[in-house]
Specification:
90 residues; mainly alpha; 3 helices; 0% strand; elongated
Length: 90
């Protein structure tokens, strides 16, 4: 059985690792507000990433449906056009 962590558990673990590293380096003052802010920051980043992935999945599904209805000669130019629309960060 595969165990998956909730977003909150992942965020908590990321914050723990972050503050362990901060404590090792002793280059920043660590206080409770910093920990809370970091936790919520990580949660928000994860939420945005999930929203982006869901949006991309929907767009891919729409484009796949379009490609299934195309003739062979239309597919290559259509794929080239789609490549131009892909954001740089992917």
């Amino acid at each position: 059985m595969k165990h998956t962590l909730s977003d909150e558990e992942v965020a908590l673990r990321i914050v723990e690792i972050y503050f362990e590293e901060v404590a090792k380096r002793r280059d920043k003052a660590v206080d409770f507000d910093s920990m809370i802010n970091t936790y919520f920051y990580v949660c928000e980043k994860m939420k945005k990433k999930e929203e982006l992935l869901a949006s991309m999945k929907n767009k891919v599904a729409v484009e796949e449906k379009k490609l299934l209805t195309m003739h062979k000669e239309e597919i290559i130019p259509a794929v080239e056009e789609l490549k131009e629309k892909i954001p740089e960060k992917f």
